[in-house]
Description:
The protein has about 170 residues and is α+β, with helices and mostly antiparallel strands. The chain folds into two domains: about 1-95, Arc Repressor Mutant, subunit A (Orthogonal Bundle); about 100-165, Ferric-uptake regulator, C-terminal dimerisarion domain (Dna Ligase, domain 1, 2-Layer Sandwich), CATH 3.30.1490.190. The chain contains eight helices and five strands; from the N terminus they run αααααββββαβαα. The chain is flat. It binds zinc ion (ZN) (2 copies). One zinc ion (ZN) binds next to loops.
Amino acid sequence: xxxxxxxxxxxxxxxxxxxxxxxxxxxxxxxxxxxxxxxxxxxxxxxxxxxxxxxxxxxxxxxxxxxxxxxxxxxxxxxxxxxxxxxxxxxxxxxxxxxxxxxxxxxxxxxxxxxxxxxxxxxxxxxxxxxxxxxxxxxxxxxxxxxxxxxxxxxxxxxxxxxxxx
Length: 166
Ligand SMILES: [Zn+2]
Ligand SMILES: [Zn+2]
């Protein structure tokens, strides 16, 4: 790891978080954090392991999982479950820290979008229910443009109401 990488604000914040918990700031933990901050995507553990290996780091999955857990608890990284059977990780220091996700059920592509409507929903929840929102999550599942263009069609599976059929 170069000095430039080690001094990035993200790594500094994570190192401080580890020290506050009394945990050692190890090269392995910094290397995992560096991979997550270097990506603007939504990384699986396999993605992270691959990027580490490509960078010449040999870090076991258990260490990657434990480090990701710490990154999530530090709130520097957000954990997503897009129903794939594994989690994805995204750092929260992007240009676009508040955004929602569209997930293609065919190819798994995750696309980000912003929703001003959701702010209005939060306001409505506040006024109608006296509820104070702190965070929210919207995931829309469907077919991306590329998959539609490639001729993929959504099946009606699960969309037919049995009462209507009877
Ligand atoms: Zn797709
Ligand atoms: Zn995202």
